[in-house]
Structure formats: C-alpha cells, structure tokens
Amino acid sequence: MPEGKIMKALSGFYYVKVNDQTYQCRGRGVFRKNKVTPLVGDTVEFQADNEREGYILDVKSRKNELVRPPISNVDQAIIAFSAVEPDFNAVLLDRFLVLIEYKQIHPVIVMTKMDLANDKVKQAMEIIAQDYRQIGYDWIFTSTEDNVGLDQLTPYLKEKISVVAGQSGVGKSSLLNAINPELELKTNDISTHLGRGKHTTRHVELIPIADGFVADTPGFSSLDFDEIELEDLPFCFPEMAEIGEGCKFRGCLHLNEPKCAVKQAVETGEIPKYRYDHYMSFSQEIKDRKPRY
After folding, report:
1. 213: which of 144, 172, 173, 290 is 20 to 30 A away, CA to CA?
2. Does the annotation flag 112 for ligand binding?
3. Is there a binding annotation on residue 113?
4. Is 94 contained in some domain?
5. Would the annotation count 115 as a binding residue?
6. For residue 95, which of 236, 273, 216, 198 has the smallest C-alpha distance?
7. 254 and 282 share a domain?
C-alpha cells in the first residue's frame, strides 16, 4: 500500500501527499469505530484509483499530537512574542513553553519588533534572552524594518513541521509572509484580550515554507493545563528537571520539601527567580483544578 502524509483536512476529506502528487481521501468507517481521527501531519497508508477518490486504511503511530490545533508529528513550535505593542509577557511565554515541553516539541523563541523598542526595553530583553539561552532555548531577535533576523529563523524551518504560536498581535503571520511572500496569510486583527486574536483560519493545512512545512492554523488556542499533572510540571521546566536530580527526595515537587536543590539554585541565582515564581503559580493552578470524572 502506498504511504503519504496528510497535508490538509477539510470537510471530511484528507489530502494525502506522496512525492509531488496529492490524493483526496476519506477515512474508512473503521476509524470512527476505533475512535481514531486522522490528523494533518499523520503518515498514512491509503488506497486510491485516482486523485479524487482515495481511502485512508491505516494511520501510523504518532510522536505527538495537539488537540488545538488538531495536528500530529510536530517537530517544533515557533513561539513569537514582541518587545513592544503588545509588551513582552514572561508569564505567558512560560505558559507556552510548559505546554510545548509537555508535548515534547522543540521550541524556538522569536522576539519581534525590536526596532520599535527603546534602549531600556532592549536591554531588559537581552538579559531575559540570556536567561532562556542558558536553559538551552533558541532565542532569535527580529525587527519589522527590513525583516532583520529572519535569515536566522529560516534554517530552523528546513525539513521540519512547525506550528506558530505566541502572543496575539505580535506579527506571527507577517513573520511567515516575510519569509515567503507567496503565502499571503491574512494578518489577524489585534484583539484587546491577551492571547486571543480573531482567528482568520478555519481549517488546518501544512504550507510549504523554507524547505519545511508550517501549520496555517491558530496555534494553541487553549492555554490551560488540563492534561498536565502536578508531578509532570517539574519536567516542563528543563533547568529544574536537571537540577532537581540533586534533591534529597525522589519525586520532589520543589515546593515545601526540605533539602531541595531547585530552591537552593533559586537562592543562588542559578535559576531565575521569576521562572520559579511562574512554576509555583502554575503548580497552584493545577492543584486548584476541578477534578474530572
């Protein structure tokens, strides 16, 4: 049976690509019975006599999947934040990072609109960037003028499936349009609510860009920690996962336990205090979550 990748899902049809050929397929009834929904990004086995009438027979195992947007096998998330208009929000950045780490997706942080920031903001951004680079995160600065910094982002997209997420109104679509002007993605109207842009996309599709693919979809429309358990959280902060191996108690949650290596690292400044504050606040949020039955 031929194998291909689902590039687009629309109105019950799945568009499966093999080399340069695309086949319009439907899912077999067996998927509904087994409660498997084929997703954009899936590698599938299919059968097709022509380009218009194919059937998906099997979905290969996934390395990850997202619910919103419904997509699988994502390699990385480009997280876009701006230095100004809207102002940078570190809590929101850490929310995105926790959700992305939990799904085992590689994050790349892109800070836009650096040319619009004053010297004081630029200095603060450089310090914060240093903190995140120390943890091991990739951090790229870009400017709206002449698209400075885009050449640094382009190599990250090569041969990868990327989702684009981040603060509303930071220029996510503009960023992709600048890399590939043929995209002509609609830029979202900036909504006054944080992280709530007016989504202009209704279906999920993988769009070729810079020798890779990017999902043209509202990324991470939900930012709550519904799936994450309290004991998962330390592993979503890579520096805490590493330093936490030195804690006295196994399974230390770095909250009230004695001889906690993480709390010690916060005191010595090895872990930025604001990262630990966000960790504590997210822990509380998970504890306060209403139980699901």
Report:
1. 144
2. yes
3. yes
4. yes
5. yes
6. 236
7. yes
- Nearest-angstrom CA–CA distance, 48 and 129: 50
> Can you give the residue range of the structural domain that contains 83?
71-215
Between CA 159 and CA 173 the distance in angstroms is: 20
Confirm whether residue 260 is marked as ligand binding: yes
- DSSP symbol at 247: S
Total number of domains in the chain: 3
> CB neighbours (10 Å) of residue 249?
10
pLDDT in tens, 190-199: 333 333 444 4
Whether omega for the bond prior to residue 238 falls within 30 degrees of 0, making it cis, is no
* pLDDT tens per residue, range 3-43: 999 999 998 899 999 999 999 999 887 677 778 889 999 99
Q: Are 16 and 7 in contact (CB under 8 A)?
A: yes
Tokens representing 6 are 């689902």
Rounded to two decimals, what is the model's pTM? 0.87
169 assigned to a ligand binding site? yes
Where are any strands of DSSP class E within 60-176?
A: 65-66, 71-72, 76-82, 106-112, 138-141, 161-166
Which of the listed residues 160, 190, 215 is the one where a domain comes to its end?
215
Amino acid at the residue 273: K
**HSE-up (13 A, CA, CB side) for residue 210:** 20
**Residues in the chain, total:** 293
Q: Are residues 80 and 29 in the same domain?
A: no
Q: Is 252 annotated as a binding residue?
A: yes
The reply to whether 247 sits in an annotated binding site is yes
42 carries a ligand binding annotation = no
> 3-state DSSP call for residue 36?
coil
Q: 288: annotated binding-site residue? A: no
d(C-alpha 215, C-alpha 199), whole Å: 14
State both tokens at 91.
Answer: 């809590």
Is position 168 annotated in a ligand binding site? yes
Angle at 158 between CA 156 and CA 159, to 5 degrees: 125
